[in-house]
Amino acid sequence: MGSSAAMAAGPGALTPWGAGNTRWGARRSELFFDRAEMDPNSHPEASQNPDPDLVFMDQALRLAQAAIPLGEVPVGAVVVRDGLIVSAAHNRRELDADPTAHAELIAMRTAAQVLGDWRLEGCIVYVTLEPCAMCAGAMVLSRIARCVYASADPKAGFMGSLDDLSQHPRLNHRFPVSTGVRANESSALLKGFFRDLRARKKMGL
Predict the structure, then answer these.
(1) Element (H, E) at 139
(2) How far is CA 144 from the centre of its chain?
(3) Burial of 67 from C-beta contacts in 10 A (0-12 / 13-18 / 19+)
(4) Which residues contact 182 (CB under 8 A, 6 or more apart)?
(5) What span, in angstroms and rounded, lies between the C-alpha atoms of 73 and 103?
(6) Angle between helices 52-67 and 103-115 in degrees, nearest 10
(7) Catalytic-labelled residue, pool 30, 37, 72, 104
(8) With CB atoms 3.0 to 4.6 Å apart as the test, which of 35, 64, 123, 167 could cross-link to 74 if both were Cys?
(9) Active site (annotated) includes residue 104
């Protein structure tokens, strides 16, 4: 989903926000994200809200907002390990004509490249919308440590809504899931996007 962003450091090397190169290059896009803008410590709420789930979900929400002017459904995701953001992305299905280009899937692919390992052990995935079956399955396969999502998806969510792949007894990996983090903000973005989309269609735009 959205422009994917990987840290400039080589595989396996994590660099704290604000260190090293100042820009992220997108793997399949001309877009770039300024790391200073994505730095949790550069925003006032970081000192007011020590809860890392709130801080990292705020980064995912900023990515979701960046998807709107591109015509993408506003969903954003970041992958975090040891308190550092490894990768980040927003939806890119329209831009890439790719049905699999969901934010969390792109972020996980990029994280695996950055870390040099398909196993994302110790990684937490923050995403603004409940993962679908495809993305939930990818989280199982990549052996993430935890998933945190904002708003539920009653029509396609597979981490509690339609089913829950994160706790499926017949799968070889299970992981905890936290829900509802910044749910109101995520829901407002999605509702506003689809309201505007319906209005444009009525106007023939």
Answers:
(1) helix 133-142
(2) 13
(3) buried
(4) 54, 57, 58, 61, 128, 150
(5) 10
(6) 120
(7) 104
(8) 64
(9) yes
CB–CB of 136/171 below 8 Å?
A: no
The predicted structure's pLDDT at residue 2: 41
Of 77-86, 121-130, 191-200, least confident by mean pLDDT is 191-200
Residues 4-58 have pLDDT tens digits of 444 333 333 343 332 232 233 333 332 334 443 455 544 444 456 579 999 999 9
Q: What is the pTM of this model?
A: 0.80
Give pLDDT tens digits for 122-149.
Answer: 999 999 999 999 999 999 999 999 999 9
* Helix residue spans in 68-102 (DSSP H): 93-96
- Do the Cβ atoms of 129 and 151 come closer than 8 Å? yes
- Residue 58 structure tokens: 């705020």
User: In 10 A of CB 120, how many CB atoms?
Assistant: 24
d(Cα 180, Cα 76) in Å, to the nearest integer? 15
